[in-house]
């Protein structure tokens, strides 16, 4: 759990008796499940995104103490919202004693209401703590604000995981292997930037929504990609991060049921995550695709991914970048082995992807597919074009692929040199060990 400034909550209850531990678990559970709704409702209530996030965190800190003493309330979410609303009113009171905004908020809430640990929520025991007709808009607006173009890509990721995903600064820092103060600084700077830019807490106009949706999707894609293949550290996978991206993608799909690329991204994530159980061995070492036991693949995830991919087709707009990548993942998911994979189709899909979302990584992956389809010489020529152009300089991906192609072409000395270069450039310990083993085997 985290405070408003991003630091970890630390109270005597954390190490106290079972009642305190039970309260802590209750607070964490409510926050992880309902954080987006809580912050979204508070942002609409206050009209101030940064204040909404801050008072929500203050309410969490108060809940740790009060629920340990009095027990969890009948409506935990209602309790947190009422407490946070009062904190917001206090903040407005401090800013201006007779501010009209404070008078309006105080009138809504009512000055005489008490908030106690065992009481019913202030909105009444049978009422939802938010308007059910607005909650979807609140959560969606929260995603768009957290991924606003005025923020840097790193800030978007941190803010999305914090206020939409409900992760603490410690969890985000651990996932991306950066210091906690760095994450805290990004979140604080992001909120200040949003305030300075006057970003309103609302859905963007319809004509802007689809354009800005790309930013939201790119954040979720970055989060999932880091979880599925960590760029650094001593673990190949960070499943918690990947599954958090999937959870957020499912939320987005429920809120935007007519956007094909939302379902394309969800399909890509589900189909890729389906292979997680077979991608590492008992010791955490990577297991290459050709060596994976496909019986260990998650068939439920594959079914969900294929269903999401099918949804993109029913919307009638054709496949976008995420839908095309999901189609490639579907080829792998449906193949009984590497040899029986439809590599010709994968080549065509990468060619289409290169036209709608060109990048050197797409070209590199297409070269791999070309080699698997039986044309390693042509694939090497494509990789060499990337090399000459200086694209992917400093990345271990290009020499890694080039080394594999040289092995296929019977040029072991050159292949070893490329694989050793890839190992030097690779920041992930697990991937590096695989590259070094391959290079040593060529000696």
TrEMBL record:
The keyword Transcription applies. Residues 1-21 are annotated as: Disordered. Residues 144-193 form the RNA polymerase sigma factor 70 region 4 type domain. Residues 37-96 form the RNA polymerase sigma-70 region domain. Keywords: Sigma factor, Transcription, Transcription regulation. Belongs to the sigma-70 factor family. ECF subfamily. PANTHER family: BLL6612 PROTEIN, BLL6612 PROTEIN-RELATED. This is RNA polymerase sigma factor (Sigma-70 family). It comes from Kitasatospora paracochleata.
């Amino acid at each position: 759990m985290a405070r408003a400034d991003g630091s970890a909550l630390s109270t005597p209850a954390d190490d106290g008796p079972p009642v305190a531990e039970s309260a802590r678990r209750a607070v964490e559970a409510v926050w992880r499940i309902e954080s987006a709704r809580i912050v979204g409702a508070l942002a609409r209530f206050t009209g101030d995104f940064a204040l909404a996030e801050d008072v929500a965190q203050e309410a969490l800190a108060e809940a740790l103490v009060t629920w340990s003493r009095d027990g969890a309330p009948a409506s935990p979410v209602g309790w947190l919202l009422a407490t946070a609303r009062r904190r917001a009113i206090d903040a407005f009171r401090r800013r201006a004693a007779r501010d009209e905004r404070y008078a309006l908020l105080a009138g809504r809430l009512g000055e005489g209401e008490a908030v106690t640990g065992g009481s019913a929520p202030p909105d009444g025991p049978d009422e939802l703590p938010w308007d059910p007709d607005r909650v979807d808009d609140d959560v969606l607006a929260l995603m768009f604000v957290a991924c606003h173009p005025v923020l840097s890509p790193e800030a978007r990721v941190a803010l999305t995981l914090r206020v939409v995903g409900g992760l603490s600064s410690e969890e985000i820092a651990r996932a991306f292997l950066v210091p906690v103060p760095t994450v805290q600084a990004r979140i604080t700077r992001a909120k200040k930037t949003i305030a300075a830019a006057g970003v309103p807490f609302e859905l963007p106009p319809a004509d802007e929504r689809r354009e800005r949706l790309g930013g939201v999707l790119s954040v979720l894609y970055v989060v999932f990609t880091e979880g599925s293949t960590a760029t650094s550290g001593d673990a190949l996978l960070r499943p918690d991060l990947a599954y958090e991206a999937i959870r957020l993608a499912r939320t987005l799909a429920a809120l935007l049921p007519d956007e094909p690329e939302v379902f394309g991204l969800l399909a890509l994530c589900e189909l890729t995550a389906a292979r997680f159980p077979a991608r590492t061995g008992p010791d955490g070492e990577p297991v290459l695709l050709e060596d994976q036991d496909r019986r260990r693949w998650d068939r439920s995830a594959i079914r969900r991914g294929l269903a999401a991919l099918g949804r993109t087709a029913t919307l009638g707009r054709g496949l976008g970048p995420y839908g095309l990548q999901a189609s490639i993942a579907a080829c792998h998911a449906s193949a009984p082995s590497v040899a029986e994979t439809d590599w010709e189709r994968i080549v065509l899909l990468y060619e289409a992807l290169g036209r709608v979302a060109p990048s050197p990584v797409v070209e590199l992956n297409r070269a791999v597919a070309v080699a698997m389809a039986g044309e390693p010489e042509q694939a090497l020529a494509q990789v060499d074009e990337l090399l000459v152009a200086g694209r992917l300089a400093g990345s271990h991906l290009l020499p890694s692929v080039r080394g594999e192609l040289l092995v296929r072409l019977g040029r072991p000395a050159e292949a070893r040199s490329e694989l050793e270069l890839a190992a030097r450039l690779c920041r992930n310990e697990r991937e590096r060990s695989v590259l070094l083993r391959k290079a040593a085997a060529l000696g």
